[in-house]
Amino acid sequence: METRLFLIASILALAVGCSSFKAIDRGDWRRVYTKDASTVKSLDAPQEIITREKYEEELSNDVRRTWSPSPGWSPPWLLDTDEIGLALNEVMEFRIDEVKPVEVQVLGTAATVYWGQRVKRDEWKEGSDITRRESSLFVQGASKGKMTIRLIAEDTTKDVPVTVK
């Protein structure tokens, strides 16, 4: 009887330990069209995320798969997003305000999450020069299912559910 209880307790402890949030490391990422869609270049064409090094290597070999949004389009803020729904292999981009230090964590594997470096952006708002510090977060559907992205800032924590269909 004690052996069964120990076995059950061990399995439960292992299951709980496997379901914890994992921190996302930053990288230098580029959003590009997939090789199959590189000649189409419509906003709906398939896309992928690659490293800056691979992107520059492709450019030096005259491969141009650069993705660019419509004029005036800006990714939504992750903090203002209540949920994310995307298709398998679809790529979505979000901005993260980094005036204060932040951390991004994930629970689950339904999507692959790529977190970019912190950058400084200068903008004009109502005649004033405004400096922002922000980063990009790319989310790409990896397998059908659900997961959670957790954004941890100094004064807030937000969980954003992700569904890949």
What's the shape?
globular
| Fraction of residues in helix | 10-25%
Q: Could you give the order of the helices and strands?
A: HEEEHEEEEEEEE
Compute the separation of the termini in Å.
44 Å
Side-by-side strand order of the widest sheet: 1-6-10-11-4
Radius of gyration, Cα only, in angstroms? Answer: 19 Å
Mean pLDDT: 85
Oligomer: single chain
Number of domains: 1
Number of helices: 2
Description:
This protein is of the alpha+beta class. It has one domain (21-164). It is built from 2 helices and 11 strands; from the N terminus they run αβββαββββββββ. The protein has helices at residues 2-18, 52-60; strands at 22-23, 29-33, 47-51, 84-86, 91-97, 102-107, 111-115, 119-125, 128-141, 145-153, 157-164. The strands form 3 sheets. Strands 1-6-10-11-4 form a 5-stranded mixed sheet, with no helix packed on it. β10 (145-153) and β11 (157-164) form a beta hairpin. The chain is globular, with a radius of gyration of 19 Å. The termini are far apart.
Any chance you could write out the topology, listing elements then pairs?
Elements: H1 2-18, E1 22-23, E2 29-33, E3 47-51, H2 52-60, E4 84-86, E5 91-97, E6 102-107, E7 111-115, E8 119-125, E9 128-141, E10 145-153, E11 157-164
Parallel strand pairs: 4-11
Antiparallel strand pairs: 1-6, 2-3, 5-9, 6-10, 7-9, 8-9, 10-11
